[in-house]
Amino acid sequence: MYGGDEVSAIVVDLGSHTCKAGYAGEDAPKAVFPSVVGAIDQMDVDEADNGENNSASAPESNNNVRNADSDKTKGKRKLYVGSQSLGYRRDHMEVLSPFKDGIVADWDIVDSIWDHAFRECLLIDPKEHPMLLAEPSSNSQQQRERTAELMFEKYKAPALFLAKNAVLTSFASGRATSLVVDGGGGSITVAPVHDGYVLQKAVATSPIGGEFLTDCLMKSLESKGITIKPRYSFRRKEIRPGEFQTVDLEFPNTTESYKLYCQRVIASDIKECVCRAPDTPYDESAYSNIPMTSYELPDGQTIEIGADRFKIPDVLFNPSLVQSIPGTESFAEIAPSVRGLPQMVIESINKCDVDIRRELFSSILLAGGTASMQQLKERLEKDLLEESPQAARVKVLASGNATERRFSVWIGGSILASLGSFQQMWFSKSEYEEHGASYIQRKCP
Amino acid sequence: MEAAVVDVGSKLLKADFAIPDQTPAMIIPTQMKQLLDDGSVTDSSLADNVTVDPVVRGFIRDWDAIEDLLHHVLYTGLGWEIGNEGQILFTDPLCTPKANKEQLVQLMFETFNISGFYASEQAVLSLYAVGRISGCTVDIGHGKIELGKSNPQVNISMSDVEKIKELYSCCAEDELAYQKTGYSCPVEKHTLPDGQVITIGRERYTVGEALFQPCLLGLEAHGIVDQLVRAISTVSSDNQRQLLENTVVCGGTSSMAGFEERFQKESSLSSSAVQPTLVKPPEYMPENLTMYSAWVGGAILAKVVFPQNQHITKADYDETGPSIVHRKCF
User: Fold this and answer.
1) Is A246 helix (H, G, I), strand (E, B) or coil?
2) Cβ distance A302 to A296 under 8 Å?
3) Would the CA dihedral through A254, A257, A258, A263 be positive or negative?
4) Across the interface, which of B218, B222, B227 has its CB nearest the CB of A57?
5) Which chain B residues are closer than 8 Å to A234 by Cβ?
6) Residue A390: CB partners within 8 Å, gap ≥ 6?
7) pLDDT for B70-105, tens place per residue?
8) CA distances from B99 to A9, B106, B315, B323 (A)
9) In chain B, helix, strand, coil percent, each to 5?
10) Is pLDDT above 90 for B45?
11) Which of A21, A264, B26, B61 could cross-link A117 (Cys pair, CB 3.0–4.6 Å)?
């Protein structure tokens, strides 16, 4: 048993879009940075034109650079982690995610992200702090054991605990039983929590997350002739005192994935600024004449956004809307199987025991960045009232504070790891050495 | 007795009693020379090479050295008497690890027997110094900047390099003006302690230019204005305007000639709907506020937290231990 009440635990929530990390007991994570990393294969670096401005002329001296020795098939590569490193354009740098379909597919990237969080952001030595890690509700046993191995073998963590995202969100709101609707970057998950445990069979997942909406917005803007210029591709010049002009810059060795990443960052900001869920299902004719909203792009160009303000968010409720957005043909293949948010909620509750359905309907929790969208709570509550059984008393709950809603998984972890009664539940290093990684299933059910 | 305010930087330690409208009385180097155990100083060439840096990049690394330094500051410098120690406010760099904070609290209460403690972040204190409670702080302090040498044969010590940097470095008007210094620029002559005369040409502009074009030194990073704009773009859009329009620049390096003008010019070229605007310090504040704005902010804050009993008292510490710092100082 680990006696961990002397030192603060570290809470890490590695989501599909953002990694959140910080000390247990605090009300917000200290570190928030992208879950994707930049990667340059070593072979490419040698061929790069070192004379070119902005090329990787001194790769050995970079901050946040780690050499990752991975499988022979991957060869050596340099990984660039964190907003600052990722925000600097480099020739031949690809943008990679550690996840594929919500499951970790590249542990080297996960390792580099954790390393960045601990040593660059929090400035801690991981062997001095117990680690509480948030994990997806459908995480596999193999993934959990790999996590434990990495934490104990490489980081020498004194203790570890894995907790499901939905359980942590439930804790953050002070409830043992609830239905958690977690709208993250890569997906939306609906998970019932009963007495602190996820009811696994009723978990529902949809690939429509915040990033999908951002992509829809980008394609819609492109179809109207609006081009989002990545920040690295232009600069302002003063041609006369007080008079400025934007000059395009050419970087032919920039990868497509990096360009897309930079454009997404801007489109995501547009989405967060102007989008809100419509009160009723989106109707093209009803919204064709609504007033436009202005948004100034980083290059100084001002764009006007009209119906998209309501159409894009409504995709969460009516996925078939995607087909009316030009350029989204690739989504057509999976469209028939994707259900809207209200349907996901009702189907999930209907898979639970009859005795707890009433309680679940009255404790629907919204969490995650995508769920922080304006008017989403009101719309979801309205739709559920219309579609749920007559006897159910529907109540959708969400923190009024956008930060708390966005970071509710992390906050739940912060609360859990600082509880006195939790301290005996840690999976300690000595238990790992005695029983092995598979013991995590017993210690962290 | 007034509370003491101590701002320990990588290069300079600023300390005095909490009188915000005055320059701190003690501004001394943080770097120390190491004496042999018998107290004697060996010949000067050897002693020059045995230096101790208690603070590295803003964080305390050598606790024994910092204890000696603080002993000198508090008892010799500020006139504290054993048995009659006062209250103290420390500045913290951003992201100070919790273990560091606890260790400092423990040192102050157990070794120095202080009667009260408070700590606050340097960035926040710098905003207080100019009368702001919301905004963005750009702190450019001490760091390892290496000057390229025009004369490879010249043997030059790090302390001489520091002095030359402080005397001569400046910012070019803009990027184009910097490029022109490659063809012609004013040359300064400097006499070294051993009598040698060296010439300093373009190097003096390169020092300042590196802040705006880090790639000159082979660093893959954006210039400071770009970094500022990018950092602010990650917060909620509602707050971006307020933060950018209340930008405070501080730290010794920002005193460089031409820095503020260059910063403002780069701001007007930044890719941001809201351009960073520098806040001028109030007129009643001492000159050269940028050198020690965190200290001034600390002095202002000390006037509030100690009289209102928001600080850690000796009784608090005795009851809870060092972890009290996380609940009472934020």
Assistant:
1) strand
2) yes
3) positive
4) B218
5) 271
6) none
7) 888 888 888 888 888 889 999 988 778 888 889 999
8) 12, 11, 21, 9
9) 40, 15, 40
10) no
11) A21
d(CA A31, CA A11): 11
Q: Which of B274, B252, B270, B272 is nearest to B262 (CA)?
A: B270
Cβ(A346)–Cβ(A387) below 8 Å? yes
Please report whether residue A323 resides in a domain: yes
The whole-angstrom separation of Cα A90 and Cα A80 is 10
Encoded amino acid at B303, one letter: K
Considering the domain boundaries, does residue A223 fall inside one?
A: yes
Instruction: Name the one residue in this structure whose structure tokens are 């999908």.
Output: A212
Whether B107 shows a pLDDT value over 80: the answer reads: yes
User: Considering chain B, what percentage of its residues have pLDDT values greater than 70?
Assistant: 88
B95 vs A: CB within 8 A = yes
Contacts of B221 in chain A (CB under 8 A): 63, 84, 88
Residue of A nearest to B96 (CA): A123
Query: Helix, strand, coil % (nearest 5) of chain A?
Result: 40, 20, 35
Q: Considering only CB atoms, which chain A residues are within 8 Å of B97? A: 122-124
Name the amino acid, one letter, at B69: L
Of A214, A252, A249, which Cα lies nearest the Cα of A233? A249
- Tokens 């701002």 correspond to B7
A378 inside 8 A of chain B by CB: no
Total structural domains within chain A:
1
Lookup result for tokens 């890490």: A12
What whole-number distance in Å separates Cα of residue B192 and Cα of residue B104? 40
Q: Which residue of B has its CA nearest to A123?
A: B97
Pairing of strands A293-296, A302-305: antiparallel
Q: Which residue of chain B has the CA closest to A234?
A: B271
Average pLDDT, chain B: 80
Closest CA to A93 of A106, A82, A79, A104: A79
Task: Give the N- to C-terminal CA distance of chain B in Å, as an integer.
Answer: 24
CATH number of the domain that A311 lies in?
3.90.640.10
Q: Where do the structural domains in chain B lie, given as residue ranges?
A: 4-38+48-130+288-329, 137-269
pLDDT tens over chain A, length 445 residues: 454 445 789 999 999 999 999 999 998 999 999 999 999 997 644 444 443 334 333 333 334 444 444 343 456 899 999 988 998 999 999 999 999 888 899 999 999 999 999 999 998 999 999 999 999 988 999 999 999 999 999 999 999 999 999 999 999 999 999 999 999 998 999 999 999 999 999 999 999 999 999 999 999 999 999 999 998 999 888 888 878 888 899 999 999 999 999 999 999 999 999 999 999 999 988 888 889 999 989 888 899 999 999 999 999 999 999 888 888 877 766 766 789 999 999 999 999 999 999 999 999 999 999 998 999 999 999 999 999 888 789 999 988 788 889 999 999 999 999 998 999 999 999 999 999 999 999 999 8
Domain that holds residue A224: 210-335
Give yes or no for B215 touching A (CB within 8 A).
Answer: yes
Among chain B residues, the shortest Cα distance to A61 is held by B219
Tokens encoding A122 = 């929090």
To probe the interface with A, which of B271, B326, B328 has the most A CB atoms within 10 Å?
B271
Q: Which CATH architecture does the domain made up of B4-38+48-130+288-329 adopt?
A: 2-Layer Sandwich (3.30)
Is A326 a domain residue? yes
Cα gap A84→A440, rounded to integer Å: 35
Within a domain: A317 = yes
- Phi first, then psi: give them for residue B88, nearest 5 degrees: -145, 140
Spatial separation of the C-alpha atoms in residues A49 and A57, rounded to whole Å: 9
Query: Could you read off the pLDDT of B138-185 as tens digits, one per residue?
Result: 887 764 333 333 444 445 555 666 667 777 777 788 887 888 887 777
